[in-house]
């Protein structure tokens, strides 16, 4: 069996790399950091023009008709350039569930405009006491043909710009998935400070109305929330892969150019071993990430694979970031250099939607209960 990426997948990744390398330079990121919000509108428009924002959308929805693997290869390149482009929350967490579970009207209302870069949507998947969107504390109550939502979502990217925020809420013993208008009465947005400077918001809902046409799914919504969560986690793993791989390459190049005792420090055995450990971590993260991605694309059960990939994403991000800073010496934290951004993103991605320690415990419980690796 051939496990290599096919030509189309590699072409999508190459196109993404070319655009992001040209437009998401260190100088451009320095400019973006001075803005009120960390969002590169020019880059977003170019990604849309190239068709990358709609890579995983059907042609009927204004996309290229590719799969989840192509999308994750694109996201890996976003991580490689730590680009100011919210691809995961907009495309994976919000748009893909609409394509999967939404009505034709909902798909046509949002997806072509998202693919064209003309409309932003996002997702609020986390709560203070619930990182998993399939187990929310937010409550949904019927209100005419729609619903009223009461609860609070945290760490919601670009909620202030979004036309809709995908949220989950408890309905009896099940879960509903809704497209919340953040501008309706009963919704309060409070800016939050994120590690990566990406604009995050707390979205507090106090009887916020969701019209019938914005109800995504209420019958079987828990499974839909899990579907969304697993793809979001896998996408963040792909992003972490790009972050960690570029950190490793940057460090390898630095140790070849930095001299001590008239020789490159990369010639020291201890430095080589440290860099080799990073390479091994990145390789393992790539394997586990794309194993999970491939199963998700085939709509196979991938709960274990996604959990394992996220554990590796957390551990790899942590270890590679630590090693990169160590081998760079004081240069690594200099803001005139670019490694500091990678360290911030590695840390945020490590903790997003579950830390390695928490997920390792959850995986252990599944194995002990006989719920894992049954096939």
Automatic annotation (TrEMBL):
Q: Which Gene3D superfamilies match?
A: Acyl-CoA dehydrogenase/oxidase, N-terminal domain, Butyryl-CoA Dehydrogenase, subunit A, domain 2, Butyryl-CoA Dehydrogenase, subunit A, domain 3
Record-annotated Acyl-CoA dehydrogenase/oxidase C-terminal domain positions: 223-367
Concerning InterPro entries, the annotation shows:
Acyl-CoA_Oxase/DH_mid-dom_sf (IPR046373), AcylCo_DH-like_C (IPR036250), AcylCo_DH/oxidase_C (IPR009075), AcylCoA_DH/ox_N (IPR013786), AcylCoA_DH/ox_N_sf (IPR037069), AcylCoA_DH/oxidase_NM_dom_sf (IPR009100)
Keyword list (alphabetical) reads: FAD, Flavoprotein, Oxidoreductase
Q: Which cofactor does it need?
A: FAD
> Which top EC class is given?
oxidoreductase
EC number(s) recorded for this UniProt protein:
1.3.99.-
According to the entry, every stretch annotated as the Acyl-CoA dehydrogenase/oxidase N-terminal domain falls at 7-118
Keyword Repressor assigned to the entry: answer is: no
GO MF terms here are:
acyl-CoA dehydrogenase activity; flavin adenine dinucleotide binding
Which family does the UniProt entry place this protein in? Belongs to the acyl-CoA dehydrogenase family.
Supply the name of the protein.
Acyl-CoA dehydrogenase FadE27
The organism encoding this protein is BD1-7 clade bacterium
